[in-house]
Design goal:
Pfam families: Glyco_hydro_2, Glyco_hydro_2_C, Glyco_hydro_2_N, Malectin. This is Beta-galactosidase. GO terms for molecular function: hydrolase activity, hydrolyzing O-glycosyl compounds. Keywords: Glycosidase, Hydrolase. The structure is a single chain. By secondary structure, the protein is of the alpha+beta class. The chain folds into 5 domains: about 20-180, Sandwich (Jelly Rolls); about 190-295, Immunoglobulin-like (Sandwich); about 315-610, TIM Barrel, CATH 3.20.20; about 610-695, Immunoglobulin-like (Sandwich); about 700-890, Galactose-binding lectin (Jelly Rolls, Sandwich). It contains 11 helices and 56 strands. It has an 8-stranded parallel β-barrel with strand order 22-23-24-25-26-27-28-30.
Length: about 900
């Protein structure tokens, strides 16, 4: 973290040293209220009872993650009385917004200034005519994140957090200035139309304003600095600026010999400081400093991506801009850390999805050598309105103008999975009309981007349907096709990915291609030694990524791939193991690393590495064998070939890695276990450690065993382990009853029946708990659960939840066919007896408590005469159920 903060400090200090403008954030002391009232911009309004908030801010940080379906999408008001001092005299005063979702109306001193549409691009307003110098000025900002059919995105698998969620700043600048109000850009655009190892042609286009009433002649000074900071050369040109003129275009062309090229290994950045000088006395009216890089690149349909003439496989991630408990209102250093995580993993590619993000993201990619794709937020579909088309075009222009000078940007993208939710079935006239409009809007955006920036590539990311995008004629529009593919997760098997890509390349051999999304959800609390699709375990996701990574590297025509996603992110409509969160990240919402991150790190990094899988699984457990051990598999990731393994100081063997993976069987003991893995590289010893607390269950529960019975936590109908990290306990899978041990009698494991096969756990959001996986499986029709425990006092906790939904929800488009077929279980009534004594009679969960809600029944019992514990489930109507059971010995 110190390294990240130091990097950030250096960056901000450089900005201050170079800039002659006054530019300071105004993030603090905003009065805020959620209200649909319209006249809150007036100076006479009393806002003293409003909440005080700081920017970045979102009003959905809590309600988008609670148990109540939906989240607030409406209007919020921000007000602040801001003192603007004498330093503003004679200058233009600009208010800059880095991001606010999604429609903003600005008022200054009770007067309407302007409106901005779109939640993810930057924007600004010149408020000079509305302010009073040396006085307090009322800023009133109305922000609305309500659904609007004319504003993309219409729908998406992420939460549309409302609010001013990025910095606001006040900038004071000369009225003779670079055109910073041209789409909130810098007013400077640097192109490198010809780049070789020997020489580079650089074209610098500047837009200049003269907002004074007097025209005149000025000088435009260019000072170039090499990547090490030394002055390379300086030029001065004359420019004539008419009175009250805006965006006067000035172009300068130069050549740089023997350039230091920008690459992923050596991200060399040049600087150019541009000044507008008075022709008479050389006074500096304005200056701007711009970083730029010198590189050339190309995408080839057969061979992939080339940077400066060298083949580079693009491997990295997508990224969403949210964090645990904060929504999308992140501090600057959190954006910096995310890009650092990608770099430390060895990634060289970031798909900035599904929208432009904080300016620091691309700044960091420039500095660290990470290539990027940036896109506008058209997701899932379009509206067939001219207003929607024009808003999309405006977003595209803002995206390109604002991010034009970043050497890391090689692709402009738009229309993610735009044929995922067409308005009609494919055999109808209405469908063909929709396809035609999709093509028309795509063609408009494509033409705009290419006219603004003819040197970069364009891309549309498709979902896994060749026919849908053929129908819309989109294969002929962008220069690159992106594929979002999830074979082996939403349906089918891993090999379906290979088959799909080979078929596609056979049909479209001349189209460059990137895998823009692929991934599997992981709840790091869940594990399984029999992993299944949609079980949310680390082990299944590991298998998924191991296959995809190998397949991607085996196909040169796949120019690159971006994992979905760098981090888990909020998606309010999702349920699953962690409600309201898409868990496909290779790090968590808190940026805790998952096993999948480790796999990519050892694959992509050059230095020798060993990373033990499951190293974050502290509360581990299982049933002892006759030797008092429990043998469980452990996965090790390494770019070394031979590895030696020790368990609790004892050498157990040497293993060989295949495709960077080694599998080893570990004999765990009760209590703390320390696994040490070592390997050698060029005489250097490489090590990794894994420590866990193994909670051993005795092989038989009767008294007199070496391992006494303490507690047992069993999930019924499940093959998964669940780690409760808060209580430091482990839940283990069920087993059928074995005399002398424990287990269920009768019934069947609950399966979620879908049109594309059965899934191992319910998708419901279980209300009243944050431990949903414990309740999302069950045994239906169970007749009894027996434990042959020794005599003593016990607490029995019965975990129950009816997994038939109270409200049938609209299926997520992203499940791509896993539509659940629900069974009517309203007639489920049963009794519960413990050792022959009724404890609960006529339990009807649906009527008495309600389905989809966590129920825990605690029962106390004395076991005597070696009778153990027998819990009987008597059917009255329908099938009795049990989701989980916890048994705790008190004495």
């Amino acid at each position: 973290m110190k390294r990240i903060l130091l990097f950030g400090l250096c960056y901000f200090c450089c900005q201050c040293l170079w800039s002659s403008r006054i530019n300071c954030t105004i993030n603090e002391m905003w009065r805020f209220c959620l209200t649909e009232e319209e006249n809150l911009y007036k100076k006479s309004f009393d806002d003293s009872n409003w909440e005080i908030v700081s920017i970045p801010h979102t009003w959905n940080a809590k309600d988008a993650a609670d148990d109540i379906p939906g989240y607030f999408r409406g209007t919020g008001w921000y007000r602040r009385n801001l003192y603007i001092g004498s330093e503003a005299a004679g200058k233009s005063v600009i208010i800059n917004f880095e991001g606010a979702n999604q429609v903003v109306d600005l008022y200054v001193n009770g007067i309407f200034v302007g409106k901005h549409v779109g939640g993810y691009t930057r924007f600004n307003f010149d408020i000079t005519p509305y302010i009073k110098v040396d006085q307090f000025n009322l800023l009133a900002i109305k922000v609305n994140n309500a659904h609007d059919a004319d504003i993309p995105p219409l729908s998406a698998d992420f939460t549309f957090f409302g609010g001013i969620y990025r910095d606001i700043s006040l900038e004071m600048v000369s009225p003779i200035r670079f055109s910073i109000t041209e789409y909130a850009s810098s007013g400077v655009y640097i192109r490198t139309p010809v780049v070789t190892e020997e020489e580079v042609e650089v074209e610098i286009e500047a837009k200049v304003d003269n907002l004074t009433l007097k025209g005149g002649n000025f000088k435009l000074e260019y000072c170039f600095y090499t990547p090490n900071g030394s002055t390379a050369f300086k030029y001065t040109d004359k420019v004539k600026l008419p009175a009250d003129s805006k965006e006067i275009r000035v172009v300068k062309k130069i050549k740089i010999e023997n350039p230091e090229l920008w690459s992923t290994e050596a991200p060399n950045l040049y600087k150019v400081r541009m000044r507008i000088l008075s022709n008479s006395d050389g006074h500096v009216a304005d200056e701007v400093v711009t970083n730029f890089g010198l590189r050339w690149y190309a995408f080839d349909a057969d061979k992939g991506f080339f940077l400066n003439g060298k083949h580079v496989k693009l491997i990295g991630t997508n990224r969403h801009q949210c964090y645990d408990g904060l929504g999308n209102a992140l501090r600057d250093e959190m954006h910096v850390r995310d890009v650092m995580l990608l770099k430390e993993m060895g990634g060289n590619f970031l798909r900035v999805s599904h929208y432009p993000q904080d300016p620091l993201v691309l700044d960091m990619c420039d500095k660290l050598g990470i290539l990027t794709s940036v896109e506008i937020p058209i997701v899932n579909g379009i509206s067939e309105s001219e207003a929607f088309a024009q808003n999309s075009l405006m977003m595209a222009k803002e995206m390109v103008k604002q991010n034009f000078n970043h050497p890391s940007v090689v692709i402009w993208a738009y229309m993610n999975e735009v044929m995922l939710k067409p308005v009609a079935k494919s055999d109808t006239i209405r469908y063909r009309q929709y396809c035609s409009e999709v093509h028309r809007q795509a063609f408009m955006i494509e033409n705009l981007i290419r006219s603004e920036d003819p040197h970069r590539y364009t891309m549309i990311p498709f979902h896994g349907s060749i026919s849908a995008y053929t129908d819309a004629g989109l294969f002929t529009v962008p220069q690159i096709i992106g594929w979002n593919l999830y074979q082996g997760w939403y349906g089918g098997g891993f090999a379906g990915f290979d088959k799909f890509m080979d078929l596609y390349h056979e049909r479209y051999p001349d189209k460059p291609t990137i895998i823009t999304e692929y991934g599997a959800d992981v709840d790091p609390r869940l594990h399984s030694f029999q992993p299944q699709r949609f079980d949310y375990t680390s082990e299944y996701a590991n298998l998924f990524h191991e296959h995809y990574l190998k397949s991607i590297f085996a196909r040169d025509f796949i120019a690159g791939a971006a994992i979905w996603n760098l981090n888990d992110f909020y998606s309010e409509s999702r349920v699953n193991a962690v409600p309201h969160v898409n868990n496909k990240g290779i790090t968590s919402l808190k940026r805790e690393l998952k096993d999948t991150y480790l796999l990519y790190k050892v694959t992509l990094c050059q230095e020798p590495l060993i990373e033990i899988g499951s190293k974050f699984w502290w509360n581990r457990g299982g049933v002892s064998d006759v030797q008092g051990k429990c043998i469980q598999p452990l996965k090790i990731y390494s770019n070394l070939e031979k590895l030696k393994v020790k368990v609790n100081g004892e050498f157990i063997g040497e293993v060989t890695t295949i495709d960077k993976v080694a599998n080893v069987q570990i004999p765990f003991s009760d209590g703390t276990n320390l696994i040490e893995v070592t390997g050698e590289s060029d005489g250097q010893m490489i090590k990794d450690y894994y420590e866990c607390d193994f909670k051993m269950l005795p092989r038989t529960l009767t008294s007199g065993q070496d391992i006494p019975f303490k507690e047992m936590n069993i999930m019924l109908g499940s093959k998964r382990y669940f780690e409760d990290k808060i209580a430091n306990i482990l839940w283990i899978p069920e087993q059928a009853y074995v005399p002398g041990q424990w287990g269920y009698i009768g019934g069947n494991a609950f399966n979620v029946v879908t049109r594309h096969g059965n899934l191992p756990a319910s998708e419901l959001n279980i209300l009243g708990t944050d431990q949903d996986p414990i309740f999302q499986t069950q045994r239906e029709g169970i007749s009894a659960f027996k434990l042959d425990v020794p005599n003593g006092k016990y607490a029995i906790y019965l975990y129950l939840a009816d997994l038939s939904p109270v409200v049938k929800r609209e299926a997520l488009a992203y499940n791509l066919g896993n539509n659940v077929l629900y069974e009517n279980t309203s007639e489920r009534v049963f009794n519960i007896k413990v050792n022959g004594s009724y404890q609960i009679k006529d339990l009807n969960i649906a009527e008495q408590i309600a389905g989809e809600r966590a129920i825990i029944k605690k029962l106390l019992i004395d076991v005597t005469e070696n009778n153990g514990i027998t819990i009987d489930f008597e059917k009255v109507k329908g099938k009795p159920i049990l989701n989980a059971i916890r048994v705790l010995k008190y004495d």
